[in-house]
Design brief:
The chain is of the alpha/beta class. It is about 45% helix and about 15% strand. It has one domain (about 5-225): Rossmann fold, CATH 3.40.50.
């Protein structure tokens, strides 16, 4: 029987890559999106065309609204029958130093990047006896740079929750995290932006999406792994080269 994965923010970028990768391994995919309806429908058609024997469904939800987040897993369960893996991928990445962070800005980033994964993780554990949860973190959690203060704090909180959830929900549910590095440039920048940043990390090159997908494979293949964070960032978490 095919397994089913719910992936938040699966219509584009890293979420889309994860969805396509899992679909190629026989998974059914619940594709969550908020505003990327055109991209989501196009992606759904691509998946259905390439994997006609598998099931793919779209689920729209605003992760900034707790009532919509609360309804997401029940909706997926009703449509898909089960959920074997939850990937908390969707997040908002916007800059602002601590001193320049309005409360509304802080709340929105914390709601989407941390509160929504918290609700989904809790609801997954309350609904299913077994499964896998993967949280997409960020190498920034090891630093105290404040240029993306609210974003970084939300990811730090998500990593702490990963460990707490792994301890509480084991052995039936394994909870792990992946911290990508220089995978994709921002939507308004090109690959040269990543190469410039890569000059100061250990591997001196962007990693692309492949390291993220291989890290996911490792989590799925190693059924004794829980409460762990895989840095697939070319050594970015080690600090910058002098």
């Amino acid at each position: 029987m095919a397994r089913t994965a719910l992936i938040t923010g699966a219509a584009k970028r890293i979420g889309k890559a994860i969805a396509w990768h899992l679909a190629s391994q026989g998974w059914n995919i619940a594709i969550h999106y908020k505003t990327s309806e055109t991209e989501a429908n196009r992606f759904l058609s691509e998946l259905a065309g390439s994997h006609p024997d598998q099931k793919f469904e779209l689920f729209k939800a605003d992760l900034n609204q707790p009532d919509e987040v609360e309804k997401l897993i029940p909706k997926v369960l009703q449509a898909m029958g089960t959920i074997d893996m939850l990937v908390n991928n969707a997040s908002v990445f916007e800059p602002a130093n601590l001193s320049q962070t309005p409360i509304e800005f802080f709340d929105r980033l914390m709601n989407i990047n941390f509160r929504a994964p918290f609700i989904l993780t809790r609801n997954f554990a309350l609904t299913f006896r077994s499964g896998v949860i993967v949280n997409i973190i960020d190498s920034r959690i090891v630093t105290n740079q404040s240029n993306f203060a609210a974003y970084s704090l939300s990811k730090k909180a998500l990593w702490e929750m990963t460990k707490m959830a792994a301890l509480e929900f084991g052995p039936g549910i394994r909870v792990n995290a992946i911290a990508p590095g220089l995978a994709l440039p921002p939507e308004d920048k090109g690959d040269d932006y990543l190469w410039k940043l890569a000059g100061n990390i250990a591997m001196k090159r962007p990693g692309g999406l492949y390291p993220i997908l291989k890290s996911l494979d490792y989590i799925l293949d190693n059924d004794y792994l829980t409460g762990q964070l895989l840095f697939c960032d070319g050594g970015e978490n080690l600090g910058l080269k002098i």
